[in-house]
Amino acid sequence: MPLIKVIRNGQITIPAEIRKVMDIEEGDYLEPELVEGNKLVLKPKETVDKEQKKAWGDLKEVLERVHHKNEGVDPDEVKKDVLVAIESLREENKREDGEKEEGKSEGRKSEGEAEKNEGKGKGKERN
Hints:
mainly alpha; 2 domains; two-stranded antiparallel ribbon; 11% strand
């Protein structure tokens, strides 16, 4: 094992081979822990903002309910059902997004027609 030198303000550099094995990248967070009184253990940690934390908690709760309701059902069948449900939701979202875009373009057409009609009306008034 290579030696690590502590520099100004207690900073250390984790050797590249250790960072690679542990998949530690610049900007990652590590949680220090003292074990057996004199050993330092650094554990990689993820940070999640409150909104994401709530979303993950909600998802976990739903998954626990699904798991409970599917006790005794073949796990591959449950996985297949979940994937079908996800695909269905994605298709529904695509349709909704398409309808929104269609509504926007219809709105632009209507605005353009109104401007044309206003222009025609102005021309008639001049005569």
